[in-house]
DNA sequence: GATGAATGAGACTTCATTCAT
DNA sequence: CATGAATGAAGTCTCATTCAT
């Protein structure tokens, strides 16, 4: 009855969404928040109507991008921080992932700017989720679990320093990031 | 009705331009590159037509902002780096200035993103001026003057790391920046 | 897999077209001219590609709807007006039909607005057919057959009044229309 | 100091809003809910950017139009119904006003369709205000104040009948409405 | 016959910029 | 000098329509 089966359609949808999200992350790196839907569609090799077939609007797309990335980010915390692995190893892993997956970099970048370029009701949600899923686990690994409300601050500073440094090569779109040097600069003491 | 003297007019102009530039920097910190001329005018407590009385257009204004800031940045290099003062002192001085003067922070922030959100012919000019006026002096102070074309990289990494960290409090618009902790994290070895 | 017979296919087509036309009329009542093809398909419980399997485009569908309704409307005129039946009975019959068949109501409604929301070349055709097939027969029954070019006006006024009143319950989608009261109000003198 | 005084600006704004509302009502009569902002701007002899200078969007404009018209409609109720004036006089007055002021006709027209073409949260507000400000006063004048929840129904039927009839000439954009004949048809018994 | 993924024309809306006062 | 009304280029987004399966 159905000319394409439900499964076929689902497969198409999954693939397209992947294409679009990847394209959006690349476009963000290139143009910043002013990226246009046309750019994203072109980067994904799709008509721009198609992007709207999958996402209601620009911020809906960005939202999905960030939520996916947050899933990844939380997983990394679990893998590297809760199982006795060192903070240094975690930092180096982050640098590697950012280089290979722009969407993950975009998440950390926006987080360091407190998601200030996003429309507000949503921004607050991301701020909170990022803090709980990424910052706090790192803070705990740093052994700085005091009841001081600024206890997360050090963890955030490390992330922000790494993001700042990594940005230099990400925005230059050069394949080689000076990961060794960044690690020495920022993670030498861990 | 009574016409103003030339001097009075000049004084007004100077004050207005200061108002506008400060407002623009604050607005950039708040909203990013998508800041609107209306926002800037409102932040400067001026009618929005007035901004155009002083600046031909948005990028003209941004240009002036960045050029002013570059003048300052170059002066800082001369003061702290060429006269035997330490890299650490320079870094701490930067943090202090960024906290007090948003326009200086904006310059360094855009520089770390290679001015990618600016229209291109102009962006290249800023990239070059920033490299020559800020990065290279720091690289020289670091004693890394080799003929390696990547010799400036380490200097840029330090700046980028500092900007990333400083951004945390700048974007939060909190008066207190954790300058001590940032200095230990990034400048400990100098 | 087993191919269907010609008769089976024909039966399917007929049923589908009925589904679609009914759905279109209901959707028009609900949303007005801005009804979407998706809405119609959903109301007909069909995939939205399917509607295009039967109708080339939106106005082709609307055209078919109105032509079918016009056939009905003309038949009603013949039944109630040419055979000595009273104007009042005709009016009451109209109210009953509109309540049960949205597509008939849609026709009269659009007619009272001179089909102004339809694309123009086509609108004129409907205006003319409605006048000849519905208005003039009623005008003749009213005994107002003068050569006065405005002789149809009274007939049209009665129809428009009835449509206005009937709309109250049709748009409210309530099953019970106050047919008695409407008849007294508008048809009392006939 | 101010190049145009506050009063001058206010005068301009008032005039422009009048222009725009008038143009919007005329355009609605011509094209229905699918009227375009371009059409409205053109009809008002303004650039379409100007319309957005005064109204955030299409439904904001329509909202203002309807609220203004509701003010008028409520005033008419007070003038004709609460002071012993007859229902018939009220009906005839309505016909006259609709002919001269399209925005008033648009209000009654949309009301008879229960504002179904407006976005829903807002539509409900208009439904309620129209009922309280227009229908109920008429119902009371009709002396049909029973506790029957359908007591307003007769009043609404009269309005709907008048709107249906008046529409014939309004949509035809003919200057002469057959007010006498409509009055005899619908208001003869009052 | 039936479906929904894909698409772009065209409408909606924003916002930098001009201009009259 | 100062202002805000006026404007349209350039984005955003909707939705009728096409098309592969």
TrEMBL record, chains A, B, C, D:
It comes from the Bacteria. Residues 14-73 form the HTH tetR-type domain. Keywords: DNA-binding. Residues 36-55 bind DNA. GO terms for molecular function: DNA binding. InterPro entries: Homeodomain-like_sf, HTH_TetR. SUPFAM superfamilies: Homeodomain-like (SSF46689). The keyword Protease does not apply. This is TetR/AcrR family transcriptional regulator. It comes from Paenibacillus zeisoli.
């Amino acid at each position: 009855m159905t000319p394409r089966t439900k499964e076929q359609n689902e497969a198409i949808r999954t693939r397209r969404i992947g294409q679009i999200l990847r394209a959006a992350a690349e476009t963000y790196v290139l143009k910043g928040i002013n990226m246009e839907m046309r750019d994203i569609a072109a980067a994904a090799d799709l008509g721009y109507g198609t992007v709207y077939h999958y996402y209601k609007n620009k911020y809906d797309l960005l939202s999905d991008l960030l939520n996916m990335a947050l899933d990844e980010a939380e997983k990394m915390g679990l893998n590297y921080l809760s199982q006795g692995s060192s903070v240094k190893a975690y930092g180096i892993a982050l640098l590697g992932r950012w280089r290979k997956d722009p969407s993950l970099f975009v998440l950390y970048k926006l987080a360091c700017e407190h998601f200030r370029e996003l429309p507000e009701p949503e921004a607050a949600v991301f701020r909170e989720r990022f803090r709980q899923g990424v910052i706090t686990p790192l803070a705990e690994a740093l052994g700085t679990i005091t009841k001081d409300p600024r206890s997360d601050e050090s963890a955030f500073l490390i992330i922000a320093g790494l993001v700042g440094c990594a940005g230099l090569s990400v925005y230059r779109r050069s394949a080689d990031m000076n990961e060794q040097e960044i690690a020495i600069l920022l993670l030498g003491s861990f």
